[in-house]
Amino acid sequence: TEYELRGVVNKVCFPTGTALFGDRLYIYYGAADNCIACASVSVKELVKELMSYKK
């Protein structure tokens, strides 16, 4: 989104912390030095996706 793209450092998100509640991983991050935001993902789905790239 726009608030994640424009700031002191453009097009960069800085992960700053995580929290795990059940199967849900929450990733807190600074967005382009202007905002704090949170993304979440199912741990089961994340591992499944990562394992699909296993060599």
TrEMBL record:
Keyword terms of this UniProt record: Glycosyltransferase, Transferase
One Pfam assignment: Glyco_hydro_130
Name by which UniProt lists this protein: Beta-1 4-mannooligosaccharide phosphorylase
Assigned EC number: 2.4.1.319
Listed GO MF terms: glycosyltransferase activity
SUPFAM superfamilies xrefs: Arabinanase/levansucrase/invertase
